[in-house]
Amino acid sequence: MMFILKELLKLVHPFLPFVTEELWHQLPLSNEKSIMITSFPKFHSKWVNSKAKKEVQMMIDLVSQIRNIRGENNVSPSKFISVTIVLKEKKNGSLLNSYSESIKSLAKLSQMRWQTESLDPKNVIRAALKFGELFIPMTELFDVEEEKKRLQKELAKVEEDMTHLDSRLSTPAFVERAPKDVVQKEKDRFQELKSKKEKLAESLKKMSSL
Amino acid sequence: MTKIMTAHISLDKPYQPKEIEEKWYQFWMEEGYFKANPSSKKRPFVIMMPPPNITGALHLGHALTAFIQDVLIRWKRMQGFNTLWLPGSDHAGIATQNVVEKELLKENTSRHALGREKFLERVWKWRENYGRIILTQQKRFGASCDWSREHFTMDEQLSRAVREVFVSLYKEKLIYRGNYLINWCPRCESALSDLEVNHIEKSGKLWHLKYPLEDGSGFMIVATTRPETMLGDTAVAVHPKDKRYQSLVGKTILLPLVQRKIPVVSDKAVDPQFGTGAVKITPGHDFNDFELGRRNSLPMISVLDEKGRMNENAGAVYQGLDRFKARKKILEDLTAQALLEKEEDYTVTLGHCDRCEAIVEPMLSTQWFVKAKPLAKPAMDVVRKKKVKIIPEGWAKTYFNWMENIKDWCISRQIWWGHWFSSALWPFSTLGWPQKTKDLKTFYPSTVMETGFDILFFWVARMMMMGIYFMKKPPFASIYLHAMVRDAQGQKMSKSKGNVIDPLDTIEKYGADALRFTMIALATQGRDIKLAEERVAGYRNFINKIWNATRFARMNLESNFNFKEVSSSKNLSTKTNF
């Protein structure tokens, strides 16, 4: 790790000369009196570990997908959830096991299960992975009734905004007199609200079917 | 293992750029890390810093130039090149004279009131002051240039190079003195190069004047936007194929107000669609007319003096009048004689002085010129043969276009302070030329000329011409042109708009590294750099992350940690390997 940090500081030194020099002196990294006179890192093809690259990339994808789903559903960052992964190949199972502690801490998981048999449950959020598919039960993510209320509230707010904007945009005095870019901005905002409304309605429909 | 530990700065808090930047710059200077070595066996990597004008403090455009060059230099230095980044500043003759004159105006005095000697004292004082400000700014930017080789375009060494170039071009008949129509600023009382004239469209008038034929057979009507120049008319011209006027060619006009006899001539350059198709010809005050006058061997009369007042050739009635007052009087006099046919609104394109914004007058004058064509040809060849690479490539086309249409270069200036073309000699004069120095041998030509695209012709093209002529080699291997810095909305930054971001204020607030990183990240090829302060704040946070990562790393080190180079990765886990 110290090696990586050292090389990284050298890499960014031309861009960030001051802070890298300071950090260079804060760490017992080398005998060189200044980072300025060290030699710039070279690319070493033999240092490229393709196996590590591939494995870690898989784990990064998995964690990103889980984080995305948490984000989209406004799941609190402190909440632990459980997930299930359906693998295409069994051999990846042991790989998942070996990384499980890291994944669980990075994606805030209470449990991570995996299996190779296919699954088709209801009321889950699913996401495709290169090596399989990810399933998260909706009940893990939110309280259905609370979520319905929240969505309804948000929908009402969007509809109200749309009414306001619509009346403004149908006032000839505004459309004619206001600067063109202002009018265009308002029109764009209206379109944005419209698509937001559609999305909210869609989510509500899903939620009601639970 | 020995380490210089900077114990008084703690890692236990967010990154505080202010505490460390000055300290490290000082350290680098003391250690002599910026100095180039002309005896080194390493491959040279050389950048000649575009010398900023001493007319004022540096702005973000200068900062960007410094940042890009510093990144290149630091990178190449770490890669083991013998790097030279040569700094300096440009005296910018007429421009500096003007800013000093503006200062004098505030004190209710002037250049002429002070006299030459006192005025020059003021200019040198200005140079000292702004030279110092610029130096301080560049140090804050973190610029790792070789200050021991700093030059000023008016210092002894460079002035000597200018004299040498002048004499040698003169001997080779590449410099000549000629009567020529030049751009003249009546306020600066100086000749201006084409590049120092801004052509601005303004609403004006087009006056139709009646010129009587000498034989009394009638009038010819000519249109003009500058009636005062009629006093210097030496012909009326029509297109040779214009049927309306064929019978009149060769006749004589009696020029109103001055009663001078002038001929009606025909010339293909006349546009039959403009006005009535007959035009007055004033070779002494119009570039097109000057050429037409030469072709038709017409006399050339100058009716303005150096301050823009009518001179003795304008006749006793008008002599001494300012050009705009004369215009008014001439129109009144023509009206009185019923010789003003009509007046209409018209959009005119007027040349304005780049320095003081006064309306420029084309004037006859004896000036010194450099023959540009013989110098331009080799400067085009080296780019065609890819001996010099222009990046982004698109500019090469613009470069050829300009070079192909190049006009002789007026190099004389009616100024008290400064000389022309010193900046064109920058890549070799700064290394000791005309002496054959070790520096010149090692560091010419430079590796890359990095600058804003706006001075490709003003400066870069001229360095190419002079460098090839005097050094027999183009002055740089490649030309890298960066874009302009604008505000977040893409507008030009200007004091009057109040959208200027000052580089030093920003550095004060976020640190030099944050500003450097932001501008470099935004400086993708060929696009304007739209800078908003939030971007700088964002990259400041990014730097803080590096800071915290290091903090974290140090916290987890054992007290007896000894850094060893990683030689094998075999006994590390896959994750660590990654």
The CATH first-level class of the largest domain in chain A comes to Alpha Beta
Strand content of chain A: 5-15%
| Average pLDDT taken over every residue of chain A | 85
- Alpha carbon gap, first and last residue of chain A: 48 Å
In CATH, the topology of the largest domain in chain B is named Rossmann fold
Low-confidence stretches of chain B: 1-9, 565-571
Question: In a few lines, what is going on in this structure?
Answer:
The mean pLDDT of chain A is 85. Helices cover 60% and strands 12% of the residues of chain A. Chain A is built from 8 helices and 4 strands; from the N terminus they run H-H-H-E-H-E-E-E-H-H-H-H.
Topology:
The complex is a heterodimer of chains A (210) and B (578).
Chain A: H1 2-12, H2 17-26, H3 50-72, E1 81-87, H4 91-107, E2 109-115, E3 124-129, E4 132-137, H5 138-141, H6 144-169, H7 172-177, H8 180-208
Helix pairs in contact in A: 1-2, 3-4, 6-8
Chain B: H1 17-31, E1 44-48, H2 60-78, E2 82-86, E3 88-89, H3 93-106, H4 111-114, H5 116-141, E4 151-152, H6 156-171, E5 175-185, E6 190-192, E7 197-212, E8 219-224, E9 235-238, E10 252-255, E11 260-266, E12 278-281, H7 287-295, H8 323-336, E13 340-353, E14 361-370, H9 373-384, E15 389-391, H10 394-404, E16 409-410, H11 426-429, H12 438-443, E17 446-452, H13 456-471, E18 476-482, E19 485-487, H14 503-510, H15 512-522, E20 529-531, H16 533-555, H17 574-577
Parallel strand pairs in B: 1-2, 3-4, 9-11, 15-18, 17-18, 19-20
Antiparallel strand pairs in B: 5-6, 5-14, 7-8, 7-13, 9-12, 10-11, 14-16
Helix pairs in contact in B: 9-10, 9-13, 14-15, 15-16
